[in-house]
Amino acid sequence: MSVVKMKTAVLAVIFTSVLVLGGCTNWQKEYEELEVRYNNLKGQHERLQADRGQLEERLTVSQQTIEELQRQMQERKQSGGAVTGFGDDFDVTLDAAAGTITVTLPNTILFSPGKATLKSATSAELNHIESVLRSKYSGRQIDVVGHTDNDPIRQSPWKDNWELSAQRALSVVRYLVDRGIPPDRIRAVGCGEWQPAVDNNSAAGKAKNRRVEIVVHMR
């Protein structure tokens, strides 16, 4: 039964009941109240349908992103090389479930110990990364995430490792923005010592944890 026919049938039943039980004095009021309830339900139904359509669209985009990242991972494995565009000289991780591509740069090539000013020698690496971001990942959201080891700050101006990691991430963001990355799609994040890649029980582990990650969100 169509919506229009159903509405007509419901109104007819209620109208008849009102005539039999209570006379005709309140039939107009009852009809108007029913009309309001019907329109409210109709509006709710239309909103639910619109929300469902948007959700299905987002799920489709997410599935396409996962499939694309899985394809890149498979091609990279088969070819033995990097297909993300960043090249073989960078530590690149593809996470299909999260929909991200992460380029990890050790702090040794970016900063001197306890400093947040970029070394001049890092320009070649960052210039290449910026070029790939603009050419292959234009329009994607980018996070620059700073990390440190768990050694406490002693002779640096920073209050703690959190502040140091945030300032280092901000230095990389400013460099990339100056080179052409739109500032409205890149942000700096400082994690300090709280998201280590490995444990900090050795000098090698501490060195691995001192890093900056450039995360490209594919969806």
Structure notes:
The protein has 219 residues and is α+β, with helices and mostly antiparallel strands. It folds into two domains: 3-77; 81-217, 2-Layer Sandwich (60s Ribosomal Protein L30, Chain: A), CATH 3.30.1330.60. It has helices at residues 3-22, 27-79, 107-110, 123-136, 161-178, 203-209, and strands at residues 91-95, 100-106, 141-147, 186-190, 211-217. It has a five-stranded mixed sheet with strand order 1-2-5-3-4. β3 (141-147), α5 and β4 form a beta-alpha-beta unit. α1 (3-22) runs antiparallel to α2 (27-79). The two termini are 41 Å apart.
Distance between the termini: 41 Å
Please tell me the CATH architecture of the largest domain by its name: 2-Layer Sandwich
Q: Spans of 5+ residues with little confidence (pLDDT < 50)?
A: none
Strand count:
5
For the largest beta sheet, what order do the strands appear in spatially?
A: 1-2-5-3-4
- Please tell me how large the radius of gyration is: 29 Å
User: Helix count?
Assistant: 6
| Largest beta-sheet details | 5 strands, mixed
Secondary structural class: alpha+beta
CATH class (first level) name of the largest domain: Alpha Beta
Envelope shape = elongated
**In total, how many domains does the architecture comprise?**
2
In terms of DSSP E residues, the strand content is: 5-15%
| Mean pLDDT figure | 82
Q: Could you name the CATH homologous superfamily of the largest domain?
A: OmpA-like domain
**Helix-residue proportion:** 40-55%
As for the CATH topology of the largest domain, it is 60s Ribosomal Protein L30, Chain: A
| Sequence of secondary-structure elements | HHEEHHEHEHE
